[in-house]
């Protein structure tokens, strides 16, 4: 008898889940309400799609296991993604000072537009599996609190019930999973939202001639000053372009949509380097603004009962403030958990869905803690405020970041955790704790750690009075 799996959502999480299911199902159908573009073009179903996206090393490693016969790293690089070494290819001003740049090897990350990433991953999955995409709107789940049996969908031809041996909800921030579960009898889902009121504003520029190898540049928000956070970055992406993405929290930190005000905002950041770079660069687009940025988590792993044959992953499970660049990697790690359990137990393995939900929650927990532990410090944040435990963790974390500005050992630990290649316990290893308590062996960097060639590029581009 043919075994069918249905995935709701054809974004990154959905396509990776479909790839995992293709190893054990005879038929995998992906449903999406949008008409998907034929190329790397933005689609309206991704409100954050025009803004900066970072694919961390942990997420990329998970992807490498999911699509048969494809190295996703090589595939994405061939499509135009840029590879950035965190140790040497990034210039970053943190709340505790500038990170130094090191020649030692360290984690890598990929940068590109979200449109390119989704298009490249979708193409790889469709080319190397039997996955099929259908344009349809998922209306509800069928079955009971004990087992999901399919999805009721709306198509151009009307409504129908699509029977399935396994269902994955990867429908993103707008997922109706909680409502669907309640209709099945699972009504004890806990949810939490922590919202700093972050606004993103992004504009694309042509990479200036001679600046093709200029490092990724980021001025991070400082949550500990008691005022709204403001940040900005210059991100190299495909097509010889820079993506310049600004972010600020409610209460006066929000970046503007007006082009002139956009530039002024960059120059008023804690360091004006982003503004100095783009003041001499050619803009290619208008400024795009988005406010879909809150941290929201559904604690599905904690429900008393969980139906067999149903898994929820990606943004449908948890969303994070995009400033921390972890959402895509968490989605990939969730798909990797699904793949591992499917290969071990097959589609019909008893308790499989519950194990996947709990496994996916572990990756969510690490990213959630990193995002929320900073967002709660911004004034005006809704849904959370720092408690005693937060203050203790923050004191240690700030000391570690300060140490990391002049210690490769401490910086390496920070990169490993933020890259999701290891869990937060990496920060509590004896060697890391010792380095943190000892403080940075090198003095704080005065200004951005640029090479002489890079300083020359910055001076040449600078059209400001700074």
What this model shows, in words?
This protein has 466 residues and is of the alpha+beta class. The protein has a domain at 4-85 and 107-192 and 293-366: FAD/NAD(P)-binding domain. It is 33% helix and 22% strand. The chain contains 13 helices and 22 strands. The strands form 5 sheets. Strands 5, 6, 14, 15, 16, 17, 18 and 19 form an 8-stranded mixed beta sheet that branches. Strands 8-2-1-12-21 form a 5-stranded parallel beta sheet. It has a 3-stranded antiparallel beta sheet with strand order 3-7-4. Helix 2 packs parallel to helix 8 and helix 10 (388-404) packs across helix 12 (430-438). The longest helix is centred in the last third of the chain and has 24 residues, at 352-375. The mean pLDDT is 93.
| CATH overall fold name of the domain at 4-85 and 107-192 and 293-366 | FAD/NAD(P)-binding domain
Category by helix and strand content:
alpha+beta
Rg over CA atoms, rounded to whole Å, is 22 Å
The proportion of strand residues reads 15-25%
Q: How many alpha or pi helices?
A: 13
* Oligomeric status: single chain
Gap from first CA to last CA? 71 Å
CATH architecture of the domain at 4-85 and 107-192 and 293-366: 3-Layer(bba) Sandwich
CATH class of the domain at 4-85 and 107-192 and 293-366: Alpha Beta
Number of strands: 22
Helix fraction bin: 25-40%
Signal peptide: 1-25
InterPro entries: FAD-bd, FAD/NAD-bd_sf
Keywords: Signal
Protein name: Pyridine nucleotide-disulfide oxidoreductase
